[in-house]
Amino acid sequence: VGSDAGQDGKQRRFNYKDTLKESTSERLLNLVNPRLILSGHTHNTCHRSHKDGTPEVTVASYSWRNRNDPSFYLFTITNDDITSSKCHLPTESTVFTLYGLAVIASLFTLKMACNRNMRCTSKIWKRL
C-alpha cells in the first residue's frame, strides 16, 4: 500500500497487486537492514517510511507513454545522510510544440534566404 500526491495535491492510496506480504517485508528489512529502499512503478511515485524508519522511494517510469510529466531522481548518498531531488522533464505537449515552432522557424528562414537572391534550386521554395 502506498500513497501519491495527484495533480491536485491530494494524497491518494493505492493497493498494489505485485507486492510482498507485510510480514515478509518486515522479515527482509530486519535481515538486510537497509538505509534506503528504491523501487519502481509504471505510473506512480511514492515516498514512505517503514516502521523502523527506513525510507522507501518508489520511482515512476521514465516514459511519456505512462505519464505526461516523466521525472527522475537524483540521490546523494553519504555515510551520514541521504538526500533526493526530483528532476522533471518537460511535458510531451511542450516538446512537440517546440518541435513545431522549430520547423516553422526553419521554413521561414529558408524562405527569407531564397528571397534574398540566393540560389533556390527547388521550385517548391520559389513558390513559398
Structural commentary:
With 128 residues, the protein is of the alpha+beta class. The strands form three sheets. It has a three-stranded mixed beta sheet with strand order 3-5-4, with no helix packed on it. The longest helix has 24 residues, at 92-115. The protein has helices at residues 22-32, 92-115, 123-127, and strands at residues 2-5, 11-14, 37-41, 46-49, 55-60, 71-77, 82-88. It is built from three helices and seven strands; from the N terminus they run E-E-H-E-E-E-E-E-H-H. It folds into two domains: 2-89, no CATH class; 93-127.
Proportion of helical residues: 25-40%
Globally, the shape reads elongated
What spatial order of strands do you see in the largest sheet?
3-5-4
Structural Rg: 25 Å
Transmembrane segments: 96-114
InterPro entries: Metallo-depent_PP-like (IPR029052), PGAP5/Cdc1/Ted1 (IPR033308)
Protein name: Calcineurin-like phosphoesterase domain-containing protein
Organism: Ciona intestinalis (Transparent sea squirt)
